[in-house]
Specification:
Elements (H helix, E strand, L loop, with lengths): L2 H32 L4 E2 L11 H11 L3 E9 L6 E9 L2 E8 L5 E6 L6
Parallel strand pairs: 1-2
Antiparallel strand pairs: 2-3, 3-4, 4-5
């Protein structure tokens, strides 16, 4: 075998490997997008002092589980601007709310039949 043929074969093998890596990453990104949570309240985000990412971190620390729903809304209590998260913990769902301007925890309870 010539050296040129070996180099060409190695380049083809590397190209196939890279294509598979790119395809796998694409599938991973698509799968994570399907599992993404719809965020309600995007238009209010500029009023919040606490970022959504930071609020998520606080909510998960207070109530470990999977966030099923999240929103930013004007609601009575605290500064009047609140992040609300519905978090699945095993077989129960909890609602965690925090002030979007101070980060203060405003609620942490089992989710009831009157979901906002």
């Amino acid at each position: 075998m010539s050296l040129d043929f070996i180099k060409m074969e190695r380049n083809i093998t590397m190209s196939v490997f890279l294509n598979r890596i790119v395809a796998a990453l694409g599938l991973l990104l698509m799968a994570s997008a399907v599992d993404a949570i719809a965020f309600t309240g995007e238009t209010l985000a500029r009023e919040a002092t606490v970022s959504l990412t930071h609020a998520r971190g606080i909510a998960i620390k207070v109530c470990p589980g999977k966030i099923l729903d999240e929103e930013l809304e004007h609601e009575i209590g605290g500064s009047g601007l609140r992040y609300s998260f519905v978090i699945q913990q095993r077989k129960v769902k909890r609602e965690v709310g925090m002030d979007a301007k101070t980060g203060e925890l405003l609620e942490n309870h089992l989710e009831g039949p009157h979901v906002d």
